[in-house]
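Chain entry —
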Amino acid sequence: MKYLRLSRPQFEELADEFAKFLAVQSIDKQQWDEIKANNSAEVERQLDNFSDFIWDGVLSNTAFLEHFTKSIVFLFKCSEENIQAIVIKCADPNLDLTTAKGVNAISDSLFTDLFEIQSGAKNYTPDRNTAIFEIIKQGAFISDGEMFLQIDAVIRG
């Protein structure tokens, strides 16, 4: 398995897509019921393959990620050829960037001694989707990129 198996609620939400996935493999409902009853290894394989298929679709369409910790915010732009990052570090140990107060402090005081900003880019290793998935596994979430674009515009002038 390349990524992570979808949860039961995710499978339930994607039931129609899973049925289409099986149909593409010429597995109809009757055959699937037979496989479930008699071949648990094949069930596991199909569930894993479907999970990878869904993850590949989601990751291929991911353009921005964000990861907030108490003292650091990581903003990512996922282009085709590389991933760009903006890292915002807070110097005040009493300010929690995972709270509304912390996010507001970024907006109000970004270019003060309270924050250190770094940016850079690197090529994907080993490939785009795997690299993005690893960042998600570390706690990032897919975002609309608004924060990245605003800060990047100010940094670039």
Q: What stands out?
A: The first strand starts at residue 64 and ends at 68. The chain has a mean pLDDT of 96. Residues 21 and 50 are 7 Å apart (CA to CA). Helices lie at 8-13, 15-24, 29-38, 40-60, 100-109, 128-137, 146-156.
